[in-house]
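Archive record
______________

***
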Amino acid sequence: MGHLCDGRVVVITGAGRGIGRAHALEFARQGAKVVVNDIGAELDGSGGSTGPAGEVVETIRAAGGEAVANGADISTWEGGADLVKAAIDAFGDLHVVVNNAGVVRDRMFANATEDEWDLTMQVHLKGHFTTARHAAAYWRDKAKAGDKVDARIINTSSGAGLLGSIGQAAYSAAKGGILTLTLVQAAELGRYGITANAIAPAARTRMTEKVFADSMAAPDDPDAFDEMAPENVSPLVVWLGSSDSAAVTGRVFEVEGGKVSVADGYQHGSVVDKGARWEPIEVGEAVTRLLSEAPAPAPVYGAS
C-alpha cells in the first residue's frame, strides 16, 4: 500500500526540534524525501549547529526513509536559495516548502528594542519569504516549460498572528504578516500549480513550554491523550503537502490536539454611505452605529 506523500520532496525549516521535527518524521513516514533544515540556534537566535537536524535525519534513515540535513540560514536571501538548491541536488526535484523556523524575543511593546524587533522580523517574516520565493521561481519556470507542477507552500502563523498576544508585539506582527503573505502567494501562484496555506498551531515547543507552562504540560497519565504534543499538528501539514490538497489554497487552519478549524479572517463589514464627503463632527455617529452592528472582536491573548 502506498503512502500519502510517496515520492514528494519536502523542505522543512526549523526542523531540528519541536513541531518542525514532528513534521519531518511524519512526512518521511508518509513516503516523502525530506530536507531537514535547522541552524541549531537557541531561542533568542544565538549559537548554531547542524546537530539537531542531523539527529532527525538519522532517525528518518533508521526507519528506512530518505533525508538530508541542511544548515542554511533562511533569514537570508542566499540561505533560502541554498535550501532550495540542496533539495534539488539531493533528490532531483522539490514539491513542498514548509516554513516553520522562528525565534522569540518577548517584550512588552513600550520596552521592545530595535534589535529584538529586527531579529523577529528577519527570522519569521523574511524567513518565510526567502525559501518560498526561490522555490516559487523554480516551480514557475517548470510550469512555463510545460512540466506539470503540483507544489505546496505551507506557512506557520500563530494565534498571536490572528488575534495578537500581550508581550509579543514583534512576534504577533510578524505572524500576522505571514497570514497576508499566504493570501498573496495563493492568489499569484495558483496559475503555476502552486497552493499556499497557513497553519496557526498550538503545541508544546521550546517557545511555549516556559511561557505557558501550565497549559502546555504533558498529562500525568502516560496513557492519556497529550493534547499539546507537537506531533498532533503534523497530520494536517502532511495532508496539505500532499497531492490530495490541490483544491485547497489561501486558507488558514488552527490546529490543537485533535481539533482542526478554518480561521475566518477580516471580512468587509457594514457600511454607512453619506454619498458625500463627511464632516469630522459627523463621523462619530456613523462609527457608533457601525460598531453597534459589528461583532465584538476576539480578545488579544493575555488580555485581562
About this structure: The chain has nine helices and eight strands. The mean pLDDT is 91. The beta strands are 9-12, 33-37, 66-70, 96-98, 151-156, 194-202, 252-256, 259-262.
